[in-house]
Amino acid sequence: MIDAQALRAVCLEQNGAGEEFPFPSSPDLSVFKVCGKIFALTDLTSETLSVSLKCDPELAPQLRAAHPEIVPGYHLNKRHWNTVALTGALPDQLVREMIEDSYDLVVAGLPRAQRLLLDRARPRRS
């Protein structure tokens, strides 16, 4: 089961990702960004851990229909965001893939120059 520490680690292992706490009214809300754009939001201190992730608008309703733990994004554009309850019911691999997909969607929307900088900064795997 993905806990708060693992969730933070998965988000921060994305190339160029950083964590911020930009909301004074919600000081515990972790916002994970790449090049200034949000790809994940979560309160890592919450008793019921969940994460909001960007999602392809065609895939979002399919995920919601297949998994009761996935609902339309809380206080976000419901067409493009899902909120995922991390209760242990979803396979860890699915959660990781949703985080990576959210990151990839945000990166795809970046200007070409920023995408190229991220590609150059990506560590090479051997």
Automatic annotation (TrEMBL):
Write down the superkingdom of origin.
Bacteria
Q: Which GO terms describe its molecular function?
A: DNA binding
Q: Does the keyword Transcription apply?
A: no
* SUPFAM superfamilies, per the entry: YjbR-like
A Pfam family of this chain? YjbR
Please name the PANTHER family in this protein's record: CYTOPLASMIC PROTEIN, CYTOPLASMIC PROTEIN-RELATED
Protein's UniProt name: MmcQ/YjbR family DNA-binding protein
- Highest lineage ranks of the organism? Bacteria, Bacillati, Actinomycetota, Actinomycetes, Kitasatosporales
